[in-house]
Specification:
Structural class: mainly alpha
Distance between the termini: 63 Å
Strand content: under 5%
Number of strands: 2
Radius of gyration: 22 Å
Largest sheet: 2 strands, antiparallel
Number of helices: 17
Strand order of the largest sheet: 1-2
């Protein structure tokens, strides 16, 4: 029955995608994050649904009359260069048998990320993309939270089998990044029952993060929590949501959970932590030996264990230059989000953009902190957050741009009626 439902749902969207290709991005995101076909047991588990949706989206792009263009910014250019660098590192990889299958996944992610940027170009589309991503991942948050509360606290919350987020560490990181997106969606709702429902989803998702028994996710939760309070509007609701999570930790989680979390402080005596440090040393050795790094999965091939770190994983696989580009993607995205927040301050009608930029920064804090101990450097969500920020910044700059009669440039590079040289709004100040 599940196979039939998923198949009908996907095939039913194809005519709409051909007419409005941006819907294809929503469906592709749903399939990528929620993986509904992996919850069936029959023929749909092996159906290439994502490929079908991508083909329909490309066909729609060809025939749709709407304007199609990619917003080229410092982030998108860097992302394109980084993709090319990853291809080169694959060509010269140390372990081709491990590298090429991973490249086959990564190039598809990057391609659809750029297609997303091409099609998601207004507030309506941005909003629905965030909704689909947040609810797709929150499905596992709500399910996992209920599992913990109904007696499953001694076991690990896990993600969909065969996906990027299958193991407890990966699903912990993904759910951690989802909570701020749920909060953004909640802020846009008017009905009290809808806002309460989103609050409940966020709380259950946080409980599911605890239920993964992932120490990296707990570190990320601690780092993200404080920043969340700084960035969120209506901090009282945030604190209200924290109370049940704290109660679950003290009254529901078993002694084994506390023992495992305690090893964060005594990592010298923990075999798993020592294995991570061993892998990180291997990543440094690979990067020092090769300008391009060792290619995908090189750290695993070199030392027999995964890097368990976004930073060291990128270093070992893409070298020091690749790591620099990966770090710059974080920095530039963060700066663009900050510029969005600054630009919309005087514009009440653009509060939604402020909310989204702030919550994406919170999500990035979770990704950077928890990702220091979990290897998800090619996770779709990180690259989706980049293009969402790029799209929102372009929309905001268009909305707050000076009217033509004010922006008209007078002789010697000065604007009429403006005491100072003109520059594009949102650009960095000179010097």
């Amino acid at each position: 029955m599940r196979d039939i439902i998923v198949t009908l749902a996907v095939f039913g969207t194809l005519p709409f995608i051909l007419k409005r290709p941006w819907i294809g991005i929503l469906v592709w995101s749903w399939l990528s994050y929620m993986n509904p076909h992996r919850m069936a047991w029959g023929f749909s588990t092996s159906m290439p649904f994502a490929f079908m949706v991508a083909l329909a989206t490309f066909a729609g792009i060809v025939f749709a009359r709407e304007k199609k263009e990619i917003v080229w910014t410092r982030e998108t250019w860097l992302m394109l260069i980084f993709t090319g660098w990853m291809f080169l590192s694959t060509v010269f990889s140390w372990y081709p048998g491990l590298a090429w299958p991973q490249w086959d996944k990564v190039w598809r992610i990057m391609l659809m990320t750029f297609v997303t940027l091409m099609l998601i170009r207004d507030r309506h589309r941005v909003h629905w993309l965030v909704v689909v991503i947040a609810l797709s991942l929150a499905f596992y948050g709500v399910k996992g939270g209920i599992f913990v509360l109904t007696g499953g606290s001694g076991n690990n919350v896990r993600g969909p089998g065969g996906s990027f987020i299958e193991d407890r560490n990966s699903i912990g990181l993904a759910l951690l990044m989802t909570v701020p997106l749920l909060w953004y969606v909640r802020l846009q709702l008017k009905a009290a029952w809808q806002r309460l429902g989103l609050l409940a989803m966020a709380v259950l998702t946080l409980i599911a993060v605890i239920g993964t028994h992932s120490r990296g996710a707990l570190v990320g939760l601690a780092a993200m929590g404080g920043f969340f309070l700084l960035k969120a509007r209506n901090r009282f609701s945030v604190l209200l949501g924290v109370i049940p999570v704290v109660l679950v930790v003290f009254y529901v989680m078993p002694p084994e959970w506390f023992e495992r979390m305690h090893t964060i402080q005594t990592y010298e005596d923990d075999g798993s932590a020592q294995g991570r440090i061993y892998a990180w040393r291997n990543a440094v050795e690979i990067a020092n030996a090769s300008l391009l790094g060792g290619g995908f999965r090189a750290v695993t091939g070199y030392g027999g264990t995964d890097s368990h770190s976004n930073w060291f994983g990128t270093l070992g696989e893409q070298g020091w230059i690749g790591l620099l580009m990966f770090v710059l993607l974080h920095v530039l995205t963060w700066r663009s989000a900050t510029q969005i927040i600054r630009l919309v301050k005087p514009h009440k009608e653009l509060t939604w953009a402020r909310d989204l930029a702030a919550m994406i920064q919170v999500s990035l804090v979770g990704y950077m902190s928890a990702g220091s101990f979990l290897g998800l450097q090619y996770f779709d969500l990180f690259y989706h957050l980049i293009v969402i920020i790029v799209a929102v910044r372009a929309l905001v700059e268009k909305e707050v741009a000076l009217p033509p009669h004010v922006a008209a440039v007078a002789p010697h590079g000065r604007s009429k009626g403006v005491a100072g040289p003109t520059r594009r709004l949102g650009a960095a100040p000179p010097g």
